[in-house]
Prior knowledge:
The chain is mainly beta. Helix content is 9%, strand content 38%. It has one helix and six strands. The strands form two sheets. A four-stranded mixed β-sheet has the order 5-1-2-6. Strands 3-4 form a two-stranded antiparallel ribbon. A hairpin with a 6-residue loop joins strand 3 and strand 4 (57-61). It is globular, with a radius of gyration of 14 Å. The termini are far apart.
Amino acid sequence: MIRAGGVRRTRNDNIAVACADCPKCGKENVVARVASPRSGFNSPTERGVTCKKCSDFFKVKESRLIIRRHPREQVDIEYGVDALPWIE
């Protein structure tokens, strides 16, 4: 795949992140980076999330988080390189 400017993107440019969609506005919110390959979580632990679009605060169980892949550069710009916690 080639991005604008002729820079080649590879699958390694994408990272796995745990996401929760806001129940009020539907905006995707990245909650954490995912450290190991997985398809989901089993933990009943709840995480508090403040929506980046509507500022609504909601809680979501880790088992309800959705794993998605996003470009590393996009995640680093939007959330900061060290700002997101890691889920093992």
